[in-house]
Write a structure and sequence with these properties.
heterotrimer, A alpha/beta, B mainly alpha, C mainly alpha, A: 27% strand
Chain lengths: 226, 226, 226
């Protein structure tokens, strides 16, 4: 369960979150669309516990241990190998020492990174690095995934691959919140869609089978009217 | 009456009283046997050093309070106190040598009071520089609070270091009272001087705080902005 | 072992693996130390003062500056890899992050001192005698003193604009007490005085260390969290 209740947060005169409230149950994937500066990153940071909102609160069942974060930065150490990164982050997230190596091997295999496991991260392409970032996130098997513009810098092939992986992960009963400015990127995955504009959710509804073009049109309308 | 005006009045009263203390010190207190008339700077220096210490203590106290309560007013007060402390220290450090020269023939000596004031000056300046280097008001307040608290904890160790240093390298002791118990008129003058400096401290801080409050939370003392 | 300490070791080990793999910072610090010792030799008039009189000061000023150089490295690492956000989103206790960085910094400083001390003995023809073991004790205590406050401040300085300048300006006043105590103890040891004469200094160094370790552990989270 993930709950946002009356979130309000401003940076100086700019309101990044203006009374945002919603609830998500396991199995729901929320795609938040909005232009840059609409407050999407702030929302995710509040959900992750990085920022304490000036008003309102966000509750994620299971706390930090249950959250997996993927942003434009992979949070991988360039001079460590992929495996070493996984072991480190696994330790940080409390994966027991006895389980760690096996879990890393599992995750590497699942993401097709077994061959690259002992390469330093600086040697990977951006697409592979993003895959390794997912691996890092999966080490502790989080129930909630927060993704902030994860498609940044990925070419078409890598992006398609990433979307497929994400679909798999979302389907396994997790809660996923995906923030992006590009409707095409997130629309297929979403069960629910929200438009964020100047800090407010101007629209929040189940996707109900609508395609990218329809959603984009609804988005433009909502922004114009909201 | 608003804070700034009250502050101004108190400062003016303080300055007038300061002039009175000067006159009293020069004309109405006995001349010290060994050090001569130049010793009279003692009536101004000791309280000035004390005010700088008071300023530091208040920076430390407000820092602790800020971190507990997160009320930016404590941060504003700490910053005002630090600025006033800087000024008092600087005045003490520049007039000290001017008075030391006639007594000891040397511009500077690592005398306990001068050295401690020098350290206070460095701590205040560091505090203000750190404030100036951080733009976000919340971060600025937190960082300043951490530095303020550490500075306060450092003070006893500085006292100690100066003491250790001096017992090994006896320094000319500038501005020492002639005997452990001061004759009446000297004591009274000293006490009045303490009161005057405390008054001046209060007056300056009030004005500085009021000014900061007018300029608004974001721009207060450090960072860029209106 | 307490969980938080185990987590601290996870962070420290990661830092050390990265440090020894890239080696640049370490080698630079070692070379810097050797150069400073050399410069001190040329910077004095050999006929005016005996090497032994100046030796303790030279040793400690050199180590203080070498420690300063190594301190920025700790959080610079996280900044370069864009990993700090990842660490803050994770359940890693903030105090573990501090202690992890502290331990890594201590190892770094220990390596630099392990090279610097023999060089010092060599360059200044210092009679070590039985002073070596107690001297290592002084090195340990004073280094902890430097690194404790240094690690705390580097977490703040690294996020300001002129980090390399800001850190020394903030930190040097805090280096004075451990420096003074270390110089006094070293002088006694090198003059072959009985250990009991240095005991007082060692106790004071330990007190400084314990006090600031506690204060820094308590304050650290304010440098990274809101």
């Amino acid at each position: 369960m993930l709950r946002a209740e009356g979130l309000w947060h401003a940076f100086g005169a700019v309101v990044a979150l203006d009374d945002v409230s919603f609830r998500l149950a396991p199995g729901q994937t929320l795609a938040v669309f909005g232009p840059n500066g609409a407050g999407k990153t702030t929302l995710l940071k509040v959900l992750a516990g990085l920022i304490r909102p000036q008003r309102g609160r966000a509750v994620v069942d299971g706390g930090r241990r249950a959250i997996g974060w993927i942003g434009h930065q992979s949070h991988l150490y360039g001079h460590l190998t992929v495996r070493e990164n996984l072991l480190f982050w696994g330790a940080v997230y409390g994966v027991p020492a006895a389980r760690r190596a096996a879990r890393a091997a599992e995750v590497l295999a699942r993401l097709g990174l077994a061959g690259r496991a002992d390469q330093p991260v600086w040697a990977l392409s951006r697409g592979l690095e993003q895959r390794a970032a997912i691996a890092r996130t999966l080490m502790h098997d989080p129930q909630v995934l927060l993704l902030d513009e994860p498609f940044t810098g990925l070419d078409l092939a890598a992006a398609a691959e990433f979307r497929a992986l994400l679909a798999q992960l979302a389907g396994a009963g997790r809660i996923v919140v995906l923030a992006t400015h590009n409707v095409d990127e997130g629309v297929e995955l979403a069960t629910d869609v929200a438009f964020q504009h100047r800090g407010r959710f101007v629209h929040f509804a189940p996707r109900a089978g609508r395609g990218a073009a329809e959603i984009a049109a609804a988005y433009r309308r909502a922004v114009r009217d909201g | 009456m608003n804070l700034a005006a009250t502050g101004r009045r108190i400062t003016l009263v303080g300055l007038a009283l300061l002039a009175a203390v000067y006159v009293r010190a020069l004309a109405f207190t006995p001349v010290e046997r060994f050090q001569g008339p130049a010793q009279k700077i003692f009536y101004l220096h000791v309280p000035a050093a004390w005010s700088a210490m008071l300023a530091m203590a208040l920076v430390g106290l407000c820092s602790v309070l800020y971190l507990i309560v997160k009320d930016l007013r404590f941060d504003r007060f700490a910053a005002a106190s630090a600025e006033v402390g800087t000024v008092f220290s600087l005045v003490m450090l520049t007039t000290g040598p001017i008075w030391a020269k006639p007594i000891w023939g040397t511009w500077w000596t690592w005398d306990a009071r001068l050295t401690l004031t020098l350290f206070l000056f460095f701590l205040f300046v560091g505090y203000l520089l750190l404030r100036g280097a951080v733009v976000d008001p919340g971060m600025r307040a937190r960082y300043a609070a951490v530095l303020g608290i550490c500075g306060l904890v450092l003070l006893p160790f500085i006292h100690l270091s100066v003491y250790l240093f001096r017992t090994l390298h006896p320094q000319p002791i500038v501005l020492k009272p002639s005997s452990p118990s001061l004759p009446g008129s000297m004591l009274v003058t000293l006490l009045v001087s303490f009161a005057v400096f405390t008054l001046l401290y209060a007056g300056f801080v009030m004005q500085r705080y009021a000014l900061a409050r007018e300029r608004g939370a974001d721009a207060a003392m450090g960072g860029r902005g209106a | 072992m307490a969980e938080w300490l185990r987590q601290a070791w996870t962070v420290a080990r990661k830092d050390l693996v990265l440090e020894f793999r890239t080696r640049t910072a370490l080698l630079s610090a070692v070379v810097f130390t050797a150069l400073v010792l050399t410069i001190f030799n040329f910077g004095r008039d050999p006929t005016a003062v005996s090497a032994l009189d100046l030796a303790p000061s030279i040793l400690w000023v050199t180590f203080a500056f070498a420690a300063m150089l190594g301190l920025n490295r700790a959080f610079q690492l996280e900044l370069e890899n864009h990993a700090l956000e990842g660490l803050l989103v994770s359940p890693l206790p903030r105090v573990s992050l501090y202690w992890g960085k502290l331990l890594a910094n201590l190892v770094f400083v220990a390596v630099v001192e392990a090279v610097g001390l023999p060089l010092f003995v060599l360059f200044f023809d210092v009679p070590m005698g039985r002073a070596l073991a107690p001297l290592v004790g002084v090195l340990a205590l004073a280094s902890v003193g430097f690194v404790t406050v240094g690690t705390l401040f580097s977490a703040m300085a690294i996020r300001t604009r002129f980090a390399e300048l800001m850190l020394p300006v903030l930190l040097l006043p805090f280096f004075v007490p451990p420096l003074v105590l270390a110089v006094l103890a070293t002088a006694k040891l090198l003059a072959a005085r009985p250990l009991s004469e240095s005991f007082g200094y060692l106790k004071l160094l330990a007190a400084y260390d314990i006090l600031f370790l506690t204060v820094a552990s308590l304050l650290f989270r304010h440098t990274v969290d809101e």
